[in-house]
Amino acid sequence: MSDQKTEQPKTFKDNDHGNLKTFADNLVKLITAEATVNEGSGVISLDAKFGMGKTHFLQMFETHLKNQEFECFFIDAWRNDFYHSPLLTIIFEFINYFDKNKEENEKIIKQLKTIATISVGTASFVINKISQKIAGFGHEGIINNAKKIEKQKKQKAR
Fold first, then answer.
1. What's the pLDDT score for residue 90?
2. Considering the entire predicted model, what is its pTM?
3. pLDDT one-digit tens code per residue, 28-78
């Protein structure tokens, strides 16, 4: 997890050496328009060569968004490149974000718990159907087989 949050927030007013505030304003308009058309989340990719100022821009853009009361947080993949999976970086940043904003984000946390519960239930259902197709038995068969094995172990132990 990054420690960049201890630094003073970068703003376009103080740090915009590339005159990118207009680009940032247009990006906010794009995000807002996209949110009205597509309910939910979206993805925007920022691509440039090494050293061109992507991180610098995004740090200023994060402050810009927060000043307009957008809910956002910053994931610096470069600083967190030591994780074996990019997903871990995202998960740890989410945990860090929610840990810092517990009281303000109770509603979001409840929604995430609901989503996680639904996801686990859905995954369980799908795995059950796949195992029924491939192995000929689902969860019930696995549980029954485990019970039979446990019963056999107990009988042998006597």
1. 77
2. 0.53
3. 998 888 878 877 667 777 888 988 888 888 888 989 998 888 877 777 777
Domain final residue pick, 80, 101, 122: 101
The number of folded domains in the chain is: 2
How close are the terminal C-alpha atoms of the chain, in Å?
53
Work out the pLDDT band at 100, boundaries 50, 70, 90: confident
Residues 28 and 9 in one domain: yes
* CA dihedral sign, ordered 76, 81, 87, 88: negative
Residues with Cβ within 8 Å of 86's Cβ and at least 6 positions away in sequence, in order, are 77
Cα–Cα distance, 90 to 75 (Å, whole number): 7
Question: Distance between CA 63 and CA 47 in Å, rounded?
Answer: 20
Task: List the one residue out of 99, 55, 106 whose CA is nearest residue 77.
Answer: 55
Range(s) of the domain holding residue 34 = 4-101
Say which DSSP state 16 is in.
-
- Mean pLDDT of the region 80-88: 70
Among candidates 147, 125, 150, 128, which has minimal Cα distance to 137?
128
Q: Where are the alpha helices (DSSP H) in 38-137?
A: 54-67, 86-100, 106-135
